[in-house]
């Protein structure tokens, strides 16, 4: 039997009992004959609490010090977990990201992994230890400073280590039983997906599904590392994410994989833009130069009488004020009338590779929204995804309506959410 990487999220190790429960699971994998490398997140809401604390002592903490602070969270959980494993009579050693050979660029708060040199981890497991690695952190190649990989980055640590160690599988343990056809916190009848392709999982992740981060799935696809997402609170098989179906039962690719939603975006409308070449280029250059990523765009037909048009686009709410500032600076060159900002929006996306070959998916999607009385403000599509923007107040209703319309509702058990504060 080969090496497995197991990752446990913050809600799985939220308190001493959680840590002891996780330690038992880890020991079981070891007893089954695997070499075991564990990646762990900070306990419960520790990371958020540390951020709150920092904001109380300084409104503008530097990236370097912030990373020093936040990585402490994972140090606490990794050492406690190693102690708990040892208390069960098994050998364990904990390692920081830097000790584990996670080498990153030097962009504090959202560093990218550029190399993993896991020599120390490999020797530790070869000596019979369970190696426990602090997730979400690394060391910068040039300055040797401690970095973090961005919120939720422990999943990426786990997949990167799995790739570098040639692991059989990367198991991501969380507070739900796997990847669901919709967020089980919103749709009680969401169904657990047995297997999903990297492609569909990537679309779900970039459409707001929070169970796996886009970057982690991207990494797994690049190195072809199968991911098994499952609950640390139950013994159930979870969801396999891989190129080809894997797991307990043989499964076919579903036409529709699921419905994702995202309430973290805002909409900016540039009102009264002269309808002539170069206007959109100037607007989006101004936004791009501030390093802001935009998502959906629509431009209306211009009114014949005025020759003016409106351009709307969506972006993360957290970037809203910077985007408005950037556009105001170019008001004269662009020549628009006014800017409208709206953060009470939600994006709802339907994802599935089967829509490429099945006609009528779009019509069913829009009918479901219309039957639910939900108004559509923007639309965008890819080959395997349709997204719309609606009022934020309508999001739960819209997701449930679409989920039912595509026959995704389960007849049996309601989805279980075992832990986490959803913070
Ligand atoms: N503790 C970090 C966070 O809360 C990293 C992680 O949980 O993956 O974002
Ligand atoms: Mg976390």
Describe the structure.
This protein has 423 residues and is an alpha/beta fold. The chain has a domain at 3-248: Acetylglutamate kinase-like (Carbamate kinase). 32% of the residues lie in helices and 25% in strands. Helix 1 (16-31) packs across helix 3 (63-87), helix 2 packs antiparallel against helix 3 (63-87) and helix 6 (198-206) runs antiparallel to helix 7 (214-223). The two termini are 38 Å apart. Aspartic acid (ASP) binds at residues 9-10, 41-42, 47, 73, 135-136, 151-154. Residues 9-10, 41, 47 line the site of magnesium ion.
Oligomeric description of these chains: single chain
CATH class of the domain at 3-248: Alpha Beta
CATH superfamily of the domain at 3-248: Acetylglutamate kinase-like
Category by helix and strand content: alpha/beta
Tell me the overall shape. Answer: globular
Instruction: Name the hetero compounds present.
Output: aspartic acid, magnesium ion
Q: Strands across the major sheet, in which order?
A: 3-6-2-1-9-11-12-10
Largest sheet: number of strands, sense, barrel closure: 8 strands, mixed
Strand percent estimate: 15-25%
> How is the CATH topology of the domain at 3-248 named?
Carbamate kinase
State the total count of DSSP E strands: 20
């Amino acid at each position: 039997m080969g090496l497995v990487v197991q990752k446990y999220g913050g809600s799985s190790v939220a308190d001493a009992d959680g840590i002891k429960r996780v330690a038992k699971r880890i020991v079981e994998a070891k007893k089954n004959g695997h070499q075991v490398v564990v990646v762990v997140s900070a306990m419960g809401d520790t990371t958020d609490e540390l951020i709150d604390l920092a904001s109380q002592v300084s409104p503008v903490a530097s990236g370097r010090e912030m990373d020093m602070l936040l990585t402490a969270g994972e140090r606490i959980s990794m050492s406690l977990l190693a102690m708990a494993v040892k208390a069960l009579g098994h050998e364990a050693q904990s390692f920081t990201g830097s000790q584990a050979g996670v080498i990153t660029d030097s962009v504090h708060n959202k560093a990218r992994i550029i190399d993993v040199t896991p020599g120390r981890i490999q020797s530790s497991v070869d000596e019979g230890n369970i190696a426990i690695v602090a997730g979400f952190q690394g060391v910068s190649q040039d300055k040797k400073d401690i970095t973090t990989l961005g919120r939720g980055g422990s999943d990426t640590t786990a997949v990167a280590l799995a790739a570098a160690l040639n692991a059989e599988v990367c198991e991501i343990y969380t507070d739900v039983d796997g990847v669901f056809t919709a967020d089980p916190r919103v749709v009680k009848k969401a169904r657990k997906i047995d297997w999903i392709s990297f492609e569909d999982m990537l679309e779900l992740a970039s459409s707001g599904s929070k169970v796996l981060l886009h970057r982690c799935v991207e990494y797994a696809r690049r190195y072809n590392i199968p991911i098994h997402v499952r609950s640390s609170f139950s013994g159930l098989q979870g969801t396999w994410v891989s190129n080809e179906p894997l797991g307990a039962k043989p499964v076919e690719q579903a036409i529709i994989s699921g419905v994702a939603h995202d309430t973290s975006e805002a909409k900016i409308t540039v009102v009264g833009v002269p309808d002539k070449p170069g206007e959109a280029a100037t607007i989006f250059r101004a936004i791009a130069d501030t390093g802001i990523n935009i998502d959906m765009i629509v431009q209306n037909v211009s009114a014949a009488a005025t020759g003016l048009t409106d351009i709307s686009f969506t972006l993360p709410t957290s970037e809203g004020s910077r985007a408005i500032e950037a556009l105001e600076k170019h008001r004269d060159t662009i020549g628009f009338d006014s800017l409208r900002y709206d953060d009470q929006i939600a994006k709802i996306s339907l994802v599935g590779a089967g829509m490429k070959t099945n006609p009528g998916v779009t019509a069913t999607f829009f009918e479901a929204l219309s039957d639910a009385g939900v108004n559509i403000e923007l639309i965008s599509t890819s080959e395997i995804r349709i997204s719309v923007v609606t009022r934020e107040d309508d999001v739960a209703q819209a997701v449930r309506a679409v989920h039912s319309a595509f026959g995704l509702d389960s007849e049996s058990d309601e989805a279980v959410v075992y832990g986490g504060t959803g913070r």
